[in-house]
Amino acid sequence: MSHSTTTYSYSAKTTSGGSSFDRFGTAEKDVNSSVGKITVKNSDMEGEMKQDAIDLTEDAFKQFTVEKDIAAHIKKEFDRKHGNSWHCIVGRNYGSYVTHETGHFIYLYVKQVAVLLFKSG
Fold this sequence. Notes:
Pfam families: Dynein_light (PF01221). Its main location: cytoplasm. This is Dynein light chain. Keywords: Cell projection, Cilium, Cytoplasm, Cytoskeleton, Dynein, Flagellum, Microtubule, Motor protein. The radius of gyration is 13 Å and the shape is globular. Residues 14-26 have low confidence and may be disordered. The protein has two helices and eight strands; from the N terminus they run E-E-E-E-H-H-E-E-E-E. The strands form two sheets. Strands 3-4-7-8-5 form a five-stranded antiparallel beta sheet, covered by helices on one side. It is α+β, with helices and mostly antiparallel strands. A hairpin with a 2-residue loop joins strand 3 (29-33) and strand 4.
């Protein structure tokens, strides 16, 4: 089975004055949540999957304080709900260049912490 793929390059960097980032793609969307403002920087997910990503991210930030634990929770839940081969990166200062299956990508911020979630493989 062949999957359509897309490649994106991102860099997440937090500065004392807020977040700066390089991105290619769609307009931002802010969502208020119990963990603070969640800003969707870019996504090609639709409907229920996109809402799952936002909800699971909020849930992970409520349950965990360590970034690797937040990433593990989001990844495991997406594997369970939407099939295997999801990857999740959480942090304040990193670069990325990823190829993902079309319709399976979201890049968002919770306050000043970036979350990159995508399916590949």
